[in-house]
Amino acid sequence: MTDTASTDGRMIDSWSAPDTRFADVVKELDRMRADAEIGSTRAAVVNLVVLAAADDGATRAIDSVVGLGQHHPGRILVIVPRGGGGDEDRMAASVELYCSRVEDRSLWWDVVRLEIGGPVAAHAESVVEPLLLHDLPVALWLAGGTSRVESPGLLDLASVIIVSGERAASSSPSATAADLAGLVRLKPVSDLAWVAIEPARQALARVFDAPERAARLEAVGGLSVEGPPWSSRLLAGWFCERTGLGPDRVRIVPGEELRAEVDLGADRAELDAGPVWPAGRVTPDRPEPAGSGPGVAVARLGSTRVSVSHGGSATRRLLSSALSHPWRDRRYEAALELAGRLGQ
Amino acid sequence: MSNPLTAGMELGRKAPPVALVVFGASGDLTSRKLLPALAALSRRRQLTDAFAVVGVARSDMDDLAFRKLAAEAVPDADPEWEELVKGFRYVQGDYGHPDTFEALHAVLDEVDESRGTNGNRVFYLATVPEQFGVVAAALDKHGLARLAPGHFGRLVIEKPFGHDPQSAAALDATIHSAFDEDSIYRIDHYLGKETVQNVLALRFANAIFEPVWNRQYVDHIQVTVAESLGVGHRGGFYETAGALRDIVQNHVMQVLGITLMEPPATVDAQGIRDEKVKLLKAIEIMDEDQVVTSSVRGQYDAGWVEGEPVIGYRQEEGVAPDSTTDTYVAMRLAVDNWRWAGVPIFIRTGKRLPKRVTEVAMSFEKVPHLPFASALTRDLEANSLVVRIQPDEGVTVGFGAKVPGSEFRIRTVSMDFAYGAAFIEESPDAYERLLLDAMVGDPTLFIRSDEVEQSWKVVAPVLSAWEAGDVPVSRYEAGSWGPRQADRLIEAGGRRWRRP
To answer: Which residues on chain A are in Cβ contact (under 8 Å) with B355?
Structure first.
């Protein structure tokens, strides 16, 4: 099925087939780019490969990534595992070509969705690698979870692995920590939860900026963090690693918004970062709930108040930020190591 | 006298009056490549009315059937092609039988009369290589090879040019007994690709590249010729060839020649081919020990390619179950000349690799000193220049750029020139370009005898050592980038293969 419409800054061409072959997908991609006469203004910066979950996660993932092309033009490949039902060996595919105007330039990107099942699901790299745009980094977003990547070859392709640690940790933070530690050994990992708590970390850090307050970090007595399970552990892990506070002095309390109290003996520092992670409340009909929009993280110590505003915790924004920083983050890795041991 | 009315007009090159005689006219190459290329030349008005194709083959066909074949080979042809095809002729016969060539002689005389082809002939041998010598000798015997002054007779042949140095020399001797070297056009279709020709433009029409095109700035070079296809129904042929003969001896050597040669005095046939030969002569001939340490031969096992399960080479039709034929080659070459001394040249080619891609990648030396915090340059790679020959023809330059933000973090970015995006003009197919060159008489993009000879000299010791069993066949899974031994070959020097 081919559907062509001409609109500025949106999808300009699309194609889909319920049962197709790899060669047809390539043919359609070539056709669309040729028909669209993508000229010398072409720019591409990244291949984003999304390994989605079989359930509604695929739709959610695509919703999150489609608009990313405006800021990170290139190719977005969404791999959706196909469930049972006797048609596992078929490959369903869709291709969408998008164009966006930025000042007087056109930016182009395409979104390829491949629904694969049966044995090919274990060899997804065999369809992904030939579709990658050459000489561009490959960001692999494990949107469907971090516990098991059915096609390990995909990990080899990745320049950076993006994970949604908060989503993965909703059942078992310690198992998630172990999974992520395994991934970190392979490639740089960018955790959306880590991106989401960046304003909180900044606010808490800056409240100790003055030398006399920084000195008080040597006498921290304890830390209490309330919030989503993974974000709170990452924040605590980072704080412990930076200050030398023992994990046994940390208390983790479940909550929807991220808050923290640092015990400084006679005094305490407080952090109120608000909702940092909407994903736990995502439903198919409400993919990005309230709280995803712009927010502010506030830290207080005595009369000192530091606020760090941010663009919100919508998955798309977090992904965009993760794609802008596709390198190994030693601070995250250190926080991750401790996060798995907290609150057990 | 030239036509004064066309002066200043960009009409492009046109074929002179000529009859193109295609041996193997009923074969796959003719239908798949030659006829569509001719139709494209016709569409671009680069063929005149004084043009005809005479097909020769063993298949039982007449003129009408051949014209039908020619029409069907180009389903979306324009009226010019349909008109042209009406003048096509066909000669049925055995290449070893004199009657075939007597009939051909008679048909060519008729064509000269009816189409005005003026006694000029280009003989294209789209046959199995075993017939090259037979046909050339028969053409000579029947007075079709060496023509009277004012007329030309050219012979076009396609690889393989021999199976080893000895058979290549024997083939050369046979062909030279019928045609002068100036009239022999050895096709390597890679040379017809725009991107390969663009290497000349890139190097010699720009001031910024040539100064760094040497050992002082280049750390190493990688040439990749990767195919996702297996041998398919060509297993029988492939068993006698292998990747070293099929790809390295010709395509890879030609690409290396163009990329690494010295600047020619003039960009013409002699200038370019002289420099290519000089470069090929500078490639170090390996001894047995070097073959062991500097070459990897591989063969694919079953695996997954483009979402499909594929069988291993030994399970392919026409392949021996214990075959040791190479479907993958990786080598480290050295070029012993002033420009490239000490720069390792890594080449790899293989079937059933993850994707079809051909490229030449130059990796430059790192800067002597990075005046930035090491943590902020961790992701910075050495500069690179990649010439992509197929698909997505173009050039990519990789360099470091500051990541926007308050930190001075630097990472590698790429600047991309894509042929398809930069030019509106449709690039001619390689066969289109080369067929026209052969008819016009421009041998620049064809391989000269001494190039073939020198390429075999580079490859022969490797073949000998392999055949003696000095280098075992390494297995690799279809859909992978080759055997682990190939990684070790490049990693020994602290480098790694690109993932094109």
So the answer is: 129-130
A236 in contact with B, Cβ within 8 Å: no
Domain ranges of chain A: 2-158, 195-339
B221/B348 same-domain check: yes
The distance of A290 to chain B (nearest Cα, Å) reads 29
B10 and B140 share one domain: yes
Q: Which of B107, B136, B158 is the last residue of a domain?
A: B158
Q: Are residues B210 and B297 in the same domain?
A: yes
B147 is a domain residue: yes
Contact check, Cβ <8 Å, A42/B416: yes
d(Cα B63, Cα B88) in Å, to the nearest integer? 7
Q: Looking at chain B, which residue has its C-alpha nearest residue A91?
A: B307
Range of the domain at B15: 4-158
CATH number at residue B318: 3.30.360.10
CB–CB of B414 and A135 under 8 A? yes
And the tokens for B351?
């079937």
Interface membership of A22 toward B (CB under 8 Å): yes
Cβ within 8 Å, pair B307-A126: yes
B402 and B311, same domain (yes or no): yes
Same domain? For B59 and B102 the reply is yes
Per-residue pLDDT of chain B (500 residues; tens, 9 = 90+): 566 666 655 556 889 999 999 999 999 899 999 999 999 999 888 888 899 999 999 999 999 999 999 999 998 878 888 889 999 999 999 998 999 999 999 999 999 999 999 999 999 999 988 899 999 999 999 998 887 788 999 999 998 888 999 999 999 999 999 999 999 999 988 888 888 888 888 899 999 999 999 999 999 999 999 999 999 888 988 998 999 999 999 999 999 999 999 999 888 888 999 999 999 999 999 999 999 999 999 999 999 999 999 999 999 999 999 999 999 999 999 999 999 999 999 999 999 999 999 999 999 999 888 888 887 787 788 999 999 988 888 899 998 888 877 788 888 888 888 777 667 666 778 899 999 999 999 999 899 999 999 999 999 999 999 999 999 999 999 999 999 999 999 999 899 999 99
Using CB atoms, pick whichever of B398, B409, B422 lies closest to residue A135: B398
Is the domain of B262 the same as that of B403?
yes
Q: Is residue B174 part of a domain?
A: no
**Does B369 participate in catalysis according to the annotation?**
no
Domain count, chain B: 2
Angle, CA B361 vertex, CA B195 and CA B368 arms, to 5°: 135
| CATH (domain of B88) | 3.40.50.720
Please state, in angstroms and rounded to a whole number, the distance separating the CA atoms of residues B55 and B52: 10
Q: What are phi and psi of A174, to 5 degrees?
A: -70, -35
Is residue B144 domain-shared with residue B216, that is, in the same domain?
no
Boundary of a domain, candidates B158, B178, B204: B158
Dihedral over Cα of B232, B349, B454, B156: its sign: positive
- For residues A284 and A234, give the distance between their C-alpha atoms in angstroms, rounded to a whole number: 27
CA angle B168, B37, B122 (to 5 degrees): 50
Choose among A21, A119, A134: nearest Cβ to B309.
A119
On the 0-12 / 13-18 / 19+ scale of CB atoms within 10 A, B184 is: buried
| DSSP secondary structure, A283-299, as one string | BTTBSS-TT-S-EEEEE
Residue A51 neighbours by CB under 8 Å, 6+ apart? A79, A124, A140, A141, A142, A143, A144, A149, A151, A154
d(CA A79, CA A53): 9
For residue B354, being part of any structural domain is answered with: yes
ipTM value for the complex = 0.82
Does one domain contain both B200 and B75? no
Put simply, whether A52 touches B (Cβ < 8 Å) is no
| B172: in domain | no
Helix (H) or strand (E) holding B461: helix B449-467
